[in-house]
Amino acid sequence: MTRSNSRSSAALLALAYLAFISLGLPDALFGVAWPSLRDDFGLSQALLGVPLAVTAISYFISGMLAGRMIQRLGIGLLLAGSTLLVAVGVLGFSVSPLFLLFLVATPLVGFGSGAIDAALNTYGARHFSPKHMSWLHAAYAAGATAGPAIMTAVLAGGASWRVGYAVVGFTLATLGVAFLATKSRWEAGQPPTQVVVDAPGNVGPVPLEEPPVSGLSALRKGRVWLQIVIFFFYTGLEVSAGQWSYTLLTEARGVAPPAAGSWVAAYWGGLLTGRIVLGFVVERVGQVRMLRFATLGALISAVLFAIPGLPLEAAALPLLSFCLANIYPGLMAETPRRVGERLAPHAVGFQVSAATLGVAVVPSVAGLVTERFGLQAIGPLLACCALALLLLHERLVAVADRAA
Fold first, then answer.
1. What backbone phi and psi angles, to 5 degrees, belong to 342?
2. Number of domains in the chain
3. In angstroms, how far is CA 281 from the centroid of its own chain?
4. What does the pLDDT read at residue 256?
5. Residue 210 lies in a domain
């Protein structure tokens, strides 16, 4: 690799890190802004879920279409256009005089974010090492942490919630311009390739002459469907554990609220810590082996958390998130090798959509389960999701090995 190409690759990697941080920025803003926004617009508390549902639906649709958009526009142009679309939506939030107009801007954020997620993961899976994939997703977690911090600082300073959205919107607009200025670099020298792995972490692209395939062709492959279902259970497990554990600990297991809150904070911190720490060792261990350890560790942690009365049972929460940390970026990194380079853009998009669906469905199912069987049923439900994740991944490994 020439020094010029090396500098170009380093610049794209740095831009990708900034992009993952910015992808996380708007995701958690709404929760902090909601009380002020609700009062300004004179809304009822029940309307909290409406923007979240609209965002999830548009994010899901975007992921389903991502493979086609990547083929039509290229990754560079898609990243630029999608980031600017999110910026327009977030800036629209900041100037909306009516809640109806706030809702009109919401699909822009969801659709653009879904496309950014799919495009960045597609590019990263093709061209970045497993350690950088892990650290890129850690950057997303850092952005998701920074977003609420920005909004909190704005509100604490006596400014309107609109200022918080404006700050994030202009930040995204700047990033969109950077993507636009570098769009040719994302495509330069990147014909369709077949990824070859000859050692853990040693990935090399080989030119591929076949034309791109359609999304329907991708959905005819069993491995694609296996990955789709795995992503559904992964995000369902991750978000359900994070959202329901505080209620379970305080209302069913008698844990004091401050202690329960600390354990839940440790759970979310475990995702960030795990992605940083495991990024240092994933290439030495091997991505597939790391994923197998991670799914087994997640099952053991979920079972420990499911058994009430164990000493330090809540300590299983950060252990669970640490085990989960590498699964999302690891599966994304393995996608081109497992489903083929030509199917990868479609598969990544479908995986993003499945992850969104898991976030929406599994925590809701958990709520229905608690109404029928009580809060203690949350633990076994998490363990069942972890078991499904382990079995599905082992099946995927077996299928991929037979096809190799």
1. -70, -30
2. 2
3. 21
4. 87
5. no
